[in-house]
Structure formats: structure tokens, C-alpha cells
Design goal:
This protein is α+β, with helices and mostly antiparallel strands. The protein has four domains: about 90 residues, no CATH class; about 150 residues, no CATH class; about 190 residues, no CATH class; about 60 residues. It has 21 helices and eleven strands. The strands form three sheets. Strands 1, 2, 3, 4 and 6 form a five-stranded antiparallel β-sheet that branches. A four-stranded mixed β-sheet has the order 5-10-9-7. α1 packs across α7, α3 packs parallel to α5 and α15 packs antiparallel against α16. It is elongated. Keywords: ATP-binding, Cell inner membrane, Cell membrane, Kinase, Membrane, Nucleotide-binding, Transferase, Transmembrane, Transmembrane helix, Ubiquinone, Ubiquinone biosynthesis.
Length: about 550
């Protein structure tokens, strides 16, 4: 490891110990060795013992930077895994990270715009509206029309911090791949690469603006999701200007309840949005933590989600979508044989995998899940268990599926937080079945015809000429094939002639030798000359 990587690793360990995060690890036989090592680092004492555990965890992640803050944001959506005091503190990482200097933020904005903020905006608020791991947001008004907007600006000098942590992650992933055979099939280096690409993409706000525009178009005139308008003329690589929205934070259950919001419908619509994005659009919001999601104040009985921060999006190709949908349907129908066969057919596991053993492994791990009522089954954990079992059979990690798995855990965590009785499978199954019916069967044929109809309509006038050209080319090809076949037959006849003459020559030469041994005069010489003549004719025939 390089010196800067050792320093970063030391800082990570130091921050963890100075905030006493080692105290969060339970004391058992598996953790005794780390606890023993901790006693050896006597100079790194807990400097924040006066703070609550959740507060210490949040501050430690915040001090370590964006990579760790993102990790905390993911954990914050799984309130079922943590006590309330820790979950509440992790939730603050979504939009209440320590802001950077507002004067510096204004300088970065003016540098991107190429002039003073007042040239284009009025009422610029120096106090940030929100601050997150990558960027912070300031409020203003467009001078040309008075519309309220938010200006999102990237934290300056954040790239070296991210690159430092990513390099360390690459180093650790390489060590795991080299020394732990089990880790190789998990492809840790590829997973780190995908995570790096995701974080670097978040630093490009032009990409985020394009993602938001695309997602807004996908849900145009759809009341279940609203994506704020982006003002592309003012957007740059480190600056994005978009419409300001007013909504209730999705984690503010008390306010939603006081307004008589239909929480069951809101939770179900969250699931519908996710599956629409995955299977209909092949373009899903992959950072659906509560800091990026709000609920419109309008129509609490018919609630609308508001989605922000489209910096991280995921995509699936047609084959992945089909196999994923079929896997989920087969799993919840308890058809484990089909689940195993689909993994082999999709290429997610090697083609020589023993399907019988694979089926048994899936059944062993997953059948106990169905001992619970269907509404209590964690959809995200089903996917985690399914992929974990498959990895035992050398399934290589599919980065796009890792992103999907993480997002599904987000969605389920939010849905259960809004409506604990949410039966995610009951909401998702009809959607998956409808999608599958549109991919295979009569609906799929009709959809294909509709999709190709404009092309056929354009091509139809040219059809007679295309048919004529095809027939003419077919005739030419047929003639050429006849010529080639005739030449082939002639070649075969010539080869047979050569073989015959060579055979005659060899026979005559043997006969000449036999006659010579019996001391017969003249005849051996004639036979030998005839044999040589036969070979000469064969040579001439072979060189025609």
C-alpha cells in the first residue's frame, strides 16, 4: 500500500475509534479479536463518550466524507434494522450534512455562470436550504419571470477526497480477490468500479439534469410522480438550477398523518413508481432515500410523490428485465426448479451448473421464508437471499443488479415506514404479470406490430421492387451455385482420372519388377515405359 493510502486507512480507523464506534459491535466469540486489538491502540480513545450512539455514528460518517455519508444514507432507509435513536440520526445525513462556506458556494456559482448571481437571479439566499454529501442547495428567484428556483452547487475540492477513498477500496478489493477465493466470484474490484462510476457521475450536474429531464418526461401527466423542471440554460457541470418545490418529507409521518394522507396508497404508489421505472422505462431512480423524496401538499387522499436528485440512475437491458421478472414470479409461486433454470439460461451462473443441486439449495434457503404471512415477507431480502444462494454456485456479481437490489431495499424500507402492513408482493405481482403478458403471447405480437408499423408503412411502397430484386438475386445465386456445382463435379472427375492413371502406373511398375525377377526379356522394359507414360498423363491432368 502507498503512503497516502496508509494515512487514509489510519484516519478511518482513528475516526471510528475516537467516536467510539467499536462499542457498537456486539461482544461475542467472533468479535473478541477486534476488541483485543482495540485495547492495543490505547492512544486512540473515545473522545465523544458524552454523546449518544446514533449521534456519534452520524458525526463519524460525516467526518469521513461523501463515500461514508452515502453508506449512512443507505442504512437510514432500513429503520427495521436499527433502534430509533440511531435511525433518526442517520436520517439527518440525507439533507442535513454540515454545509460549507456560503461565500465559497456563491463564488462557485458565479464562476459557473460567468458573472454575478444578481445578473440572472434575485433574492439569493446565502443560508443554504439543504446540504448533502456531494452538494448543497441555495434558493433564489429568476429575474426574468420571478419563479422560485434552487441552485445546487457541488462542494469544491470534493473529488480528491472521493478518489482517495476509492483508491483504498480498490486496494482492499484487490487483496480480497487475491487471497480469498470465495471473494473472487463476488468480483469486488468490479463492484468498486461500478460504485466509483456512480459517485463520479454524481459530480456531473449536467448528467443529473439530463436524468431529471428524462424522468420528468417518463411521468409526464402521470399523477403518481412529479419531477421538478430543470432550467438547462443555467446548468453547468458543477451547477444545476431547477424549480423549487414545496412538499412534506416522506419520513415526516406525523405531518402526513395529521393531513389525513392516504398512507397505504402512498406506499403502494412508491412500489408502482419503482416497478414502472424498472420494467416500463428501463431507467430507475437509484438513490431513493427520504432526503430525495417528498409528498405534495395537494390532494392527501390522492397523494403524489415528488422526486429529487436524479444523480444516480440504473438501467436494465431487455434480457435482464425478462429474467428478473420471471425469477420473481417463479420464486413467489415456489417454482424453485424454474428459478434455477432461469439463472442458468440467463448466464448468471455457469452453464455446467447442476440444476438439481441448485434447485435444492434455493429451496433450503428460501422455503422457510414462506412460513411467514405473505405481507410480512421482505421483498428485498428475498432478492438478497436469492442472489446470495446463486453466488455459492459461482454466480458472478451483476453490477446493474446490485444497484437494483439496493434500490429495492430503499423502496421497501420507505414503504414499510409509511405503512407497516404494506404487502409489497401483492402490489408488485399484478404489475410483473402484466409486464410479462406484454412481452410474450398475443399482446407481445400486437405490440411488436404496432412498434414496427411505421417502418413497414415506409417500406411498403418499395416492396415490389425489393421482391423483384430478391428474385433476380436469387436466380443469379442459383445460376452461380449450378456453375460451382458443375465445376465441383468436373474437379471430382479430374481427380478420379488422376488417381486412376497413378494406380495403373503403380500396378505396371510392380508388374515390371516381377517380370524382371523372372528374367523375362523385353516385356519388363515395355511395362516400365508404359507405367512412366501413365504417370506422365496423370501429372498433365492434375495441372490442367
Amino acid at each position: 500500500m502507498r503512503l497516502n493510502e496508509i494515512r487514509r486507512l489510519y484516519k478511518i480507523i482513528r475516526v471510528h475509534l475516537e467516536y467510539g464506534l467499536d462499542e457498537l459491535v456486539p461482544d461475542n466469540s467472533l468479535t473478541r479479536w477486534p476488541h483485543f486489538l482495540r485495547r492495543g491502540l490505547f492512544w486512540l480513545k473515545n473522545k465523544h463518550s458524552d454523546k449518544e450512539e446514533g449521534d456519534r455514528l452520524r458525526l463519524a460518517l460525516q467526518e469521513l466524507g461523501p463515500v461514508w455519508i452515502k453508506f449512512g444514507q443507505m442504512l437510514s432507509t432500513r429503520r427495521d434494522l436499527f433502534p430509533d435513536d440511531i435511525a433518526d440520526q442517520l436520517a439527518l445525513l440525507q439533507d442535513q450534512v454540515m454545509p460549507f462556506d456560503s461565500k465559497l458556494a456563491k463564488e462557485e456559482i458565479e464562476k459557473a455562470l460567468g458573472g454575478p448571481v444578481e445578473t440572472w437571479f434575485d433574492d439569493f439566499e446565502m443560508t443554504p436550504l439543504a446540504s448533502a454529501s456531494i452538494a448543497q442547495v441555495h434558493v433564489a428567484r429568476l429575474r426574468e419571470n420571478g419563479r422560485e428556483v434552487v441552485l445546487k452547487v457541488i462542494r469544491p475540492d470534493i473529488l480528491p477526497v472521493i478518489q482517495s477513498d476509492i483508491k483504498l477500496m480498490y486496494r482492499m478489493a484487490g487483496i480480497l480477490s487475491r487471497f480469498l477465493p470465495v471473494a473472487r466470484r463476488l468480483r469486488p474490484v468490479e463492484v468498486v468500479h461500478e460504485y466509483e462510476k456512480t459517485l463520479i457521475n454524481e459530480l456531473d450536474l449536467l448528467r443529473e439534469a439530463a436524468n431529471a429531464i428524462q424522468m420528468r418526461r417518463n411521468f409526464d401527466n402521470n399523477p403518481i410522480l412529479y419531477v421538478p423542471e430543470v432550467f438547462s440554460d443555467f446548468s453547468h457541470k458543477n451547477l444545476m438550477v431547477s424549480e423549487r418545490i414545496y412538499g412534506i418529507g416522506v419520513s415526516d409521518i406525523d405531518t402526513l398523518t395529521k393531513r389525513d394522507t392516504n398512507l397505504k396508497l402512498l406506499a403502494e404508489r412508491g412500489v408502482e413508481i419503482f416497478f414502472s421505472q424498472v420494467f416500463r422505462d428501463s431507467f430507475f431512480h437509484a438513490d431513493m432515500h427520504p432526503g430525495n423524496l417528498f409528498v405534495s401538499y395537494d390532494n392527501p387522499d390522492d397523494p403524489t410523490w415528488i422526486g429529487l436528485d436524479c444523480g444516480i440512475v440504473g438501467t436494465l437491458n431487455r434480457e435482464d428485465k425478462r429474467y428478473l421478472a420471471e425469477n420473481l414470479l417463479a420464486f413467489f409461486n415456489r417454482d424453485y426448479r424454474k428459478v434455477a433454470e432461469l439463472h442458468v439460461d440467463s448466464g448468471w451462473v455457469p452453464a455446467d451448473t447442476n440444476v438439481d443441486e441448485f434447485e435444492f439449495a434455493i429451496r433450503t434457503v428460501c422455503e422457510p421464508i414462506f412460513e411467514k404471512p405473505l405481507g410480512e415477507i421482505s421483498f428485498g431480502h428475498v432478492l438478497v437471499n436469492l442472489f446470495s444462494t446463486a453466488r455459492q454456485f459461482d454466480m458472478e456479481v451483476q453490477p446493474q443488479l446490485v444497484l437494483l437490489e439496493k434500490t429495492l431495499l430503499y423502496v421497501e424500507g420507505l414503504g414499510r415506514q409509511l405503512y407497516p402492513q404494506l404487502n409489497l408482493w401483492e402490489t408488485a405481482k399484478p404489475f410483473l404479470e402484466d409486464w410479462m403478458s406484454r412481452q410474450v403471447g398475443p399482446k407481445a405480437v400486437l405490440n411488436a406490430i404496432k412498434e414496427k408499423a411505421p417502418f413497414w408503412a415506409e417500406t411498403l411502397p418499395e416492396l415490389p421492387e425489393l421482391v423483384y430484386d430478391s428474385l433476380r438475386q436469387g436466380k443469379a445465386v442459383s445460376q452461380r451455385m449450378d456453375e460451382m456445382y458443375g465445376a465441383f463435379l468436373e474437379g471430382q472427375r479430374q481427380q478420379n482420372r488422376v488417381r486412376f492413371l497413378l494406380g495403373i502406373g503403380a500396378s505396371l511398375l510392380i508388374t515390371s519388377a516381377i517380370l524382371f525377377t523372372h528374367q523375362i526379356e523385353t516385356l519388363p522394359e515395355i511395362t516400365c515405359v508404359t507405367a512412366l507414360g501413365s504417370w506422365l498423363f496423370a501429372w498433365r491432368a492434375a495441372n490442367k
